[in-house]
Amino acid sequence: MSSPRVLTIAGSDSSGGAGIEADLKVIAAHGCYGMTAMTALTAQNTSGVKGIHVVPAAFLEKTLEAVVEDIGVDVVKIGMLGHESTIATIVATVKKYKLHRIVLDPVMVSTSGSILLPAAAVAVLCDSLIPLATLITPNVSEARHLLAHYVPAAAFDEFEDIYLNSQTSLINLAKTLHKHTSTAVLLKGGHLPLTDDGLVAARDVDKAMVADVLVLSDETVHVFTSPYIHTANTHGTGCSLSSAIACNLALDQSLPSAVSSARTYVAGAISTSLSLGRGSGPVNHLYSLYRLPYCTGHFFDYLTQHPRVADIWNDYVNHPFVKRIADGTISTTAFKWYLCQDYLFLVQFSRASALLAYKSSTIPQIAVHASGIADITQETGLHVKYCGLFGVTEEELQAAPEAATTTAYTRYVLDVGASGDAAALSVAMASCSLGYQAAAQNRLVDGASKTTARGNQFWSWVEQYSSAEYIAGVKKRRDMLEEMADGFSVNQVAQLVEVFRRVTEMERDFFTAALNQDTED
Ligand SMILES: Cc1ncc(COP(=O)(O)O)c(N)n1
């Protein structure tokens, strides 16, 4: 297997938000293979650059030779250069190895305001490196610095701050820079947010969009606009955009689509940016790599072992109420109360199954949930039989007043079903069926219960919920949930964990309420 190879020639940012550190994360997020040639070390954090240590040109040359001669390079991204001698080395290497796909981010000043390229180096950059680039990606201030190199002071006037007042003037600036450099230009307008009407926004509340202008030739101009994202955390935006463009080129996209996809990627990284440090926090380079925290077929294990759930789940499936059913020490009062309430619970649970069938979209899914109702009918049969033993008729079961715990639990499940989707309802119902199976099976493997099973009038409860038939019914519904879980989003999973926690608490409390009937006698 091979991935497109992307080399970043840039400075290191010790805080990990910009520079080489950002580039490598972006390259990884695009599934490309990243290599580095360090031009400078910066002692840097979110508030500023505390020091710069330029890598000697001879060492940079060795680095470039080492990676280019061995691994090879599909696309080069160039960031902070730091020194004139660095530029000369890169120019020589690019020519020697005929590197021809180069995205050059002419980094001059950091977001925090530190100079990252001495003014004297700008001329060398313009005369020797820019002509070799496929694309340059200046922001407005960098574009003006570059332009100052090409045009006499008088002609430069029209690009003074006061004239840069609209999307149209951004387009003019980009076109003019392209005319002088003869290189494709992506002018980044992120520092000049616009109103809905395309004018530079004077107030924070008017900032509606940002526009980036791509000029490929006098006639070919693309204007990309996107909503302005209100955040103070933008450290690494420029580095990330140019690296993402380099990756997209390495993945064989055309220049306009490479820019368009890279902008979408960066917008995601900004909108999920991290509030780290005291200054402008870093963008979230790796947000697109977030994966579901469980593998196929293990969503339910993930739920029961989740730190917010595990203790509650354990209390539920090893509840003393079930232990006392298994060893025969539960009182008839407590068990009868439980049977009545569980019967009433199952009435609502059948409605929930019907709702789940209604919310499902395929015939096999609907069939599984409809068969769930048939399974519940069988389950209630046991309740009726049991109650008969204790002299309670089915009519009396039906007429029994519903306890507050039962009402709370069942109506919560039905509410999740009414307001949420099939996934949420499945999760709300899973704690009951899977938990009963686990609770019964835990008692089966419990040696003590086996010896007391004979002659224990409650033992058939354990047998029912650990029977092959019950397990097969539960498995069908669990498989369906696992299948759905493959398509969940990360946010959805976090919400489902909360639903599962809530219903598991209510299951536990249901058993506790049953046990408490003894003390209430
Ligand atoms: C090593 C290095 N390279 C580039 C930048 C610019 O990034 P930003 O504009 O986000 O500060 C930086 N701060 N540090």
Which helices and strands, and how do they pair?
Layout: E1 5-13, H1 19-29, E2 33-44, E3 49-54, H2 57-70, E4 75-78, H3 84-96, E5 102-104, H4 119-129, E6 135-136, H5 140-150, H6 153-156, H7 167-181, E7 184-188, E8 209-215, E9 221-227, H8 237-250, H9 255-271, H10 299-305, H11 310-317, H12 320-326, H13 332-359, H14 363-389, H15 394-399, H16 404-419, H17 422-444, H18 447-453, H19 459-465, H20 468-485, H21 490-520
Parallel strand pairs: 1-2, 1-4, 4-5, 5-6, 6-7
Antiparallel strand pairs: 2-3, 7-8, 8-9
The protein binds (4-amino-2-methylpyrimidin-5-yl)methyl dihydrogen phosphate.
Organism: Orbilia brochopaga
Domain Thiaminase-2/PQQC: 306-516
Protein name: Phosphomethylpyrimidine kinase
Please give a handful of descriptors for the protein shown.
521 residues, alpha/beta, UDP-N-acetylmuramoyl-L-alanine:D-glutamate ligase, Heme Oxygenase, Chain A, 2 domains, nine-stranded mixed beta sheet, 57% helix, elongated, binds (4-amino-2-methylpyrimidin-5-yl)methyl dihydrogen phosphate
Side by side, the strands of the main sheet go: 3-2-1-4-5-6-7-8-9
Question: What is the alpha-carbon Rg in Å?
Answer: 33 Å
What is the CATH C-level name of the largest domain? Alpha Beta
| Secondary-structure element series | EHEEHEHEHEHHHEEEHHHHHHHHHHHHHH
Structure annotation, total helices: 21
Largest sheet: 9 strands, mixed
